[in-house]
Description:
It is built from 2 helices and 6 strands. It has 99 residues and is of the alpha+beta class. Strands 1, 2, 3, 4, 5 and 6 form a 6-stranded antiparallel beta sheet that branches.
Amino acid sequence: MTLEVIALSSGDRRIDIRASIAAPQRQDDGSWLCRVEVAPLQDQALDVRGVDSFHAVWLACSLILKLLAQLKEAGARLENADGSDFPLDAYLAGLDGKR
């Protein structure tokens, strides 16, 4: 799965972000691992481990959303490829346990 977002920081510096999550893989210890890449925000791929495949994907998605939220909190504007606002709030809705 992939997600592409454009971040425009102060001075209209453009950062094309491509986040990808590989399919979860079962590990020898019974846990599940997803490889996550968030280029160019992270230099290397990150391995996210969960108790099952759903949990691993959930944690991988949460990691990407937290990185995007940090950019927004730092003042960046997040956009889709067509220039419309990236709906970060819709993605984050419900993560705090509220509906």
